[in-house]
Amino acid sequence: MRFSKPILFITCLLPLLWIAISTGQAVNPIEFLTRQTGTWALNFLMITLCVTPLRRLTGYGKLLLYRRMLGLYVFFYAFIHAVTFFVFDHGLDPAAILHDVIKRPFVTIGFLAFILLIPLAATSNQAAIKKLKRQWQALHKLVYLIASLGVLHYFWLVKKDLTTPLIYAGILAILFLMRTPFARRFDKAKLQKNT
Ligand code: HEM
């Protein structure tokens, strides 16, 4: 569809619009902003990871056209999440930031996930894909490690109710299973090729 990309682009901005409107009304705006941007970074990460299995199951190759944009939105929301923490929580004080990154394991994990997202975002363009070739594929497999770190980060920071991080862990486990040779036997794309 001709307008599918601009429509997706605008749709992906809707959570930000909602966050911007709701933050002003929140009891603790900084906490609200941090939590919502973290949640949306993880949501977009899961959605991005669904693209390849969905393409394989449906045989609809054009889905890949949207993967890059979705991936860049993961970085976009994670960036706002990290900046909120650095600027509003720590007043951009390097010593305070470093102290938190070292002393609080859930921050260490989140920070690592964010650092790993940077090379992926930086190489999400046609020139990098052409230049890096096979290395690009290897580099972008890091997305599974980043997703695992994101879920772990969530588990670690939750104190009581583990339901939501467990849901993310379940989705991620299914996505991992879909990469196994057994699951790949149901690939529509492959079935069509063989018939
Ligand atoms: C520099 C990197 C990061 C830092 C410093 C950081 C820090 C934080 C902090 C302080 C919170 C709030 C904890 C609380 O309110 O008790 C949080 C929540 C969260 N973060 Fe991060 N984070 C980082 C990266 C990430 C990344 C890359 C993801 C996802 C891929 C992520 C996903 C989440 C999620 C899902 C939450 C919980 C939201 C909720 O409570 O509903 N974070 N993070």
TrEMBL record:
GO biological process assignments: protein repair
Q: Which cofactor does it need?
A: FMN; heme b
Q: Name one GO molecular function term.
A: metal ion binding
Against Pfam families, the record matches this protein to: Ferric_reduct
Keywords of the record, alphabetical order, are: Cell membrane, Electron transport, Flavoprotein, FMN, Heme, Iron, Membrane, Metal-binding, Transmembrane, Transmembrane helix, Transport
Q: Name one GO cellular component term.
A: plasma membrane
On cofactor binding, the record's note says:
Binds 1 FMN per subunit.
Q: Which residues form the Ferric oxidoreductase domain?
A: 37-150
State the annotated membrane topology for this chain. Answer: Multi-pass membrane protein
- Cellular compartments annotated: Cell membrane; Membrane
List membrane-spanning regions: 40-58, 70-88, 108-127, 139-156, 162-182
Under the heading PANTHER family, the entry gives: PROTEIN-METHIONINE-SULFOXIDE REDUCTASE HEME-BINDING SUBUNIT MSRQ
Describe the subunit structure.
Answer: Heterodimer of a catalytic subunit (MsrP) and a heme-binding subunit (MsrQ).
Q: What does this protein do?
A: Part of the MsrPQ system that repairs oxidized periplasmic proteins containing methionine sulfoxide residues (Met-O), using respiratory chain electrons. Thus protects these proteins from oxidative-stress damage caused by reactive species of oxygen and chlorine generated by the host defense mechanisms. MsrPQ is essential for the maintenance of envelope integrity under bleach stress, rescuing a wide series of structurally unrelated periplasmic proteins from methionine oxidation.
Q: Which family does it belong to?
A: Belongs to the MsrQ family.
Q: What is this protein called?
A: Protein-methionine-sulfoxide reductase heme-binding subunit MsrQ
Origin species:
Iodobacter fluviatilis
